[in-house]
């Protein structure tokens, strides 16, 4: 029986259902409260744009809620673990299960099973929903909550170097040869770095080579003269490879897309440690839902009448939050090369897996 982690079908369903309901309840409470607080800070910015109204507020909420769910789902699992096990302990149900011959691991097995299911759901949700919401919200925030860009991958406030000259654009849409710049400004500079000419246009397309400006206006600093052109080609040194090697947002890209971005950057000799750590974390992050029942398990054991139940709950919560602190610190270390990407993403998970298992075995097994 000690090696059968699910000795009772009825008990497994009972614990799993209880745990799942508490996860959903805690997550709903956290998301609702945090969304209300977020709207208090953002409503003014959204409604300040002419034409925005209630529909835009609902749009913002629909884009922000997936982010909150993804971020606080592991916390919800941790809190649900403590609430579930503390309740079972206080009602002497844990004592009854141990008296029936169940080990601590067998009591936790249904919770770990639900944690695994939550991890799979979290990974799929991140890939299919959260990445798209992040991309759209980032593009919308970049234009200060004006019209939502049709292309969520559009970039705002871009600039490219053409030798000593600089090409700038308010937005960049499209991919490859179909890239389009809007709100274009091109600065021509001399060898001393001083601006000699400023060329502005509302739109520019890739001209292979260079960028063709439409209805351009050129201002010469030395003469203070202004000239207009129907079309004008500038920045012939700005190639498509510079456009492709854009600033990658790992939170807005799925595993497959982020893999391609990393390969492109590596092919161009760019540093990708931060992106590789985020790539690995797309797998290790959701698995934290499996880890939380183990870290919060300390709240479920010991005698409730001894007065230590609250202390045990605090210890379980501290272990869980310590994991998130170490996880974020490891990712930060990996972003500037302090840790290899694989270590940065996975070391906190295995470290706290061993800590949780050690605490459980030493105190209960």
From TrEMBL:
Keywords: Cell membrane, Membrane, Transmembrane, Transmembrane helix. GO terms for cellular component: ATP-binding cassette (ABC) transporter complex. Transmembrane segments: none annotated. Pfam families: LptF_LptG. It is found in: Cell membrane. It comes from the Bacteria. Its main location: membrane. It is a multi-pass membrane protein. One of its GO terms (biological process) is lipopolysaccharide transport. Signal peptide: none annotated. PANTHER family: SLR0882 PROTEIN-RELATED, YJGP_YJGQ FAMILY PERMEASE. This is Permease. It comes from Aurantiacibacter gangjinensis.
